[in-house]
């Protein structure tokens, strides 16, 4: 399998964690989001990912896009080390946590959106930081409640083995720290992040560990 | 089952289509996003949906949030009239189309984001419309390619029965029309939308047909 990735992309980071948790080998291909006017916008890459975003996973049969869809495909195709629970209620809960991050926090703060706000609307650096932190703070506060108020939360987001929700949470917290978002009021998230960060699967997926890191 | 909904919410609209396709009865509870300073922000609703967004689906056991997670739960719990294909590659494709809409178009244009742009950043009405159309145009162009370049596209997004991707596409096109986004360069999407709109499941889920429509 070939993963089209960028070290700092948190959507790619999610998939790297999932691949590592399942101990699946893959070839990483760097798509530099800032070089050459954005390599993700070049025609040869957009044939793989029409929206021009990372990650994409090239398998024997197809090129898969969208990080959550890729992780579900990995989980169905390589079911050893399951990343989703085996009951429908549990899966709905894990997907809801993952989607709170992947739909309601991350898309607002990714590179193409920040670029639009800066270039097309002309917001200041301070307004950009406020925007970024607003969605992180609001979104992670909701995730904290989903975790704090549910007995199914364990060492990890759902039970005592890491899964899809953890694959999304750790990259989002990485971004939150990068933009100095306060995490003091998020004790459950902080505890789970510490548990994940003790595992090699998460450590080796981190941006700084990637071959294309700068 | 009880669906917390708002007639114009496209995330709620997705779930209404799915419930109708499966012919599942439900009680609709209106959460008015503009009345009382936003009923979705009130404490009793945020106990159900910590982020304060619609829809939420209350089942016998739990309150489920996030429209795609809810639809997957419905599909697993009521498998008659399947909304996802039965092969992993097909599911990955359908989820990728759904997530291109639910992660990369819709979150940028929903009410809370437009309100932030208007109130906190002070953008003009024209800038708001440009912003809205930019993400719709870019996102739907990508969806068009995912559909046009794949033999698995049928009468609907994936094959000849409607499914998860169609549940996301129709509400997004409804929004696109509302903001006068041009659809002329999207022939496959336009054809699929016409096919969906001929079905009662889609017709009855439309905003204008809801008991809380204005």
TrEMBL record, chains A, B:
- Domain (GST C-terminal): give its ranges: 87-214
Drop me one GO molecular function for this one: maleylacetoacetate isomerase activity
| E.C. designation(s) | 5.2.1.2
Q: Which UniProt keywords apply?
A: Isomerase
In terms of domain of life, where is this protein from?
Answer: Bacteria
Q: Which enzyme type, at the first EC level? A: isomerase
NCBIfam families in the record: maiA (TIGR01262)
State the family it belongs to: Belongs to the GST superfamily. Zeta family.
Per its UniProt record, what PANTHER family does this chain match? GLUTATHIONE S-TRANSFERASE YFCF, MALEYLACETOACETATE ISOMERASE
Entry protein name: Maleylacetoacetate isomerase
Task: Give the organism, scientific name.
Answer: Undibacterium aquatile
Q: What is the lineage of its organism?
A: Bacteria, Pseudomonadati, Pseudomonadota, Betaproteobacteria, Burkholderiales
